[in-house]
Amino acid sequence: MIGIIPAAGIGQRMGAEIPKQYLQCCGKTILDHSIFALLQDPRVKRVWVAVQDNDQWWPESHFANDSRVEATLGGATRAQSVLAALRAAKESGVATATLAVVHDAARPALARDVLARLLDVAERSPESGALLALPVRDTVKQAETSAAQGSLSVSEQTLEREKLWLAQTPQVFQLGQLIQALEAGLAANSPLTDESSALERFGQRPLLVVGSRKAMKVTDPEDLALVEYYLKQLNRSFL
Fold first, then answer.
1. What is the DSSP secondary-structure string of 50-95?
2. pTM score, two decimals?
3. Residue 194: is its pLDDT beyond 90?
């Protein structure tokens, strides 16, 4: 298995002076925690990180000189960055049947046991692929904008939450299969919000593995305090 981490984004909603993946949490950057999370499992032999052109923060990463980690140039979107990293891995000699474990740069608190559970499922069903996800607990509304209500959103209908899951990462698919799906999706200008969505276009039905709230994605400033709390619970050491 190999790891893929798209880290070329700027995290605009965070409103920070630097890309959110380079913000500090518990003494390390968010990105370093996310890389470490993948390398916790010995089945993940190498990790490709897609970074911005002239990324001034990556050279200071704890993993910048780690032989298991390769930096490659990312793209303008998440899908483009994932595809660039996958292609770099393939060009280095990684076989197309190899499982690629794609993880968000801003999900630093992925626990080792949660990752192991996902990889176990992916190994048993490599052709299907698998992803972490959480069943929806709250009542979910489908909304539309109402001119009569001053452009406020109004509830149009209540969705059947028993069929709804919140996708997380990692998401695991065979390298060649994922390259093909992303290339086709990008060529068709499809909205590819995650790797699973690219495979679903071809009728594939990836397996859902129950994730963890700790594997949250850092998006807004208020997320930092919560993810630091989760990281302290993991009590991990890089050294």
1. EE-TT-SSGGGSTTTT-TTEEEEE--SSHHHHHHHHHHHHHHTT--
2. 0.93
3. yes
